[in-house]
Design goal:
The complex is a heterodimer of chains A (281) and B (243). Chain A has ten helices and twelve strands. Chain A is of the alpha/beta class and 281 residues long. In chain A, helix 5 crosses helix 6 and helix 6 packs parallel to helix 7. The longest helix of chain A has 18 residues. The two termini of chain A are 28 Å apart. Chain B is an all-alpha fold and 243 residues long. The chains are: A alpha/beta (281), B mainly alpha (243). At the A-B interface, helix 2, strand 6 and helix 4 of A face helix 4 of B.
Chain lengths: 281, 243
Amino acid sequence: MASPALPADQSTSKAAPASTTLLTFEDVSIAFDQPVLDDISFRLARGETKVLLGEAGTGKTLILKLALGLIRPDSGRITVLGEEISSMREQDMYAARRQVGMVFQESALFDSLTVEDNVAYRLIEETGTITDEIHNRVIEALEFVELGHTAKLFPSELSGGMRRRVAIARAIITQPEVLLYDSPTGGLDPVTSNTIIELVVKQRDVYQTGSLLVTHRLQDAFTMASHYFDRKLNKMVPLEEGSSRNVHTTFLILRDHKIIFEGTAQELLQCHDPYIREYLS
Amino acid sequence: MQDYSLLAGRSISNLFSKPRYMADTLLQADLIGVGSLPIVILIGFFTGAVLALQTASTLQQFGSLSLTGKLVALSMVRELGPVLTGILVAGRNSSGMASELGSMKVTEQIDAMRAMGVDPTKKLVTPRVVATVIMLFFLSILSDFVGLAGGFVISYLLLGLDPNQYWTTAYQALKFGDVFMGLGKPVVFGFIISSVGCYYGMSASGGTQGVGRATTQAVVAASVTIVISDFFITKLLMGIFGN
């Protein structure tokens, strides 16, 4: 899939160095009647993508909601850009959340607003009205996901794949430091799924945004680990054989409330754990 | 109860901090106030009319038909205007709020709002509470007036009462305590309607079935709370202002 040209002034706009830790989970536990997550710890660096894998109900979406402060852990510590959000008051958390973008499983677009108003929502909240500058940024974000022509439509007039892409545009419009994707390809056909994954790869490689990606599709996960976004060709291309290019993509596998694997695609493929072998097969 | 109290408290405390969503408040005022006008006028008019019709035969037995205006005025202003309007608006708007916010909740739109750094209680709840309190106040006044007009139509056309006598007895019957009671109740009822509707909407779960359940619960809870609180407000104000 060929993508539209990138806005040159934003491609290197991040101020933080590449080694910056964006998100940390330290011994995070949470239970709803029964334990769901138990002593979960990991860190997410700038430009890194962590793919969360695991069976349904293992707490993958819960990790995203914890990272966003939508749910508080029972114990443990979560920091976003150095700020501990696990002990923050709800009112104080609204400012911290502006540094994080989230793409919800079912898009969660506001169905009474147009695509333009949906994408501009955060910016309108800050300024109170939709200015020419905001309009231009909306169109730019929509063109990033190749939906520039849908600005005046309502979400109900879009297909499932288009709604996911609008949700991505809404999440990236403020260029957040961290992006959380909750099954962005769930229920979509392979072609549309590939389009969405290309946008995720583009966001990772061009803007160096740190991201957590929840998916049930192993194919998507391995595409993330085996492709990079070529800015000259303006599309996602596979890594050449023996390439030393680091795509900064690692895998986390959850089982029985714990992380049972954390590592690269290579390490995952070489893992001899019977459960993981079965999961991958 | 604890969650409801917290939400109700937040809906008021939000008034004292920015941002304040004036456009959303005006939109809700239009939906709740202007949208409820026809039904409030219709019900208010016929309530006053039937009140005059029902009481006339009893008053006639005591030779007090001339007091029809007084009876309609006191009944409408103290009780029927605020309570009937409250129950009507509860049925129309409490359910609307619960279903709208409930749908947003189950489709993760509320979470999306929080994720984008917007406080849903400020954006969704406080504008609805403010708009309902203000509009129910004016709707109750309107209901009182059209109720009196309905009583007048019956008194003049069917009972043959002198128009001047009807309006004079109605006007003279109302004391400060009656008017205070008639204007104070809608403020409390408006708060109950909106906060209960928003609470059930914001706590909806279980998909479309959950939204339907929240809608029904909101109407029932708001209506029952209005009637129960009406008794206590009346008792309190009668204690303060006398009968």
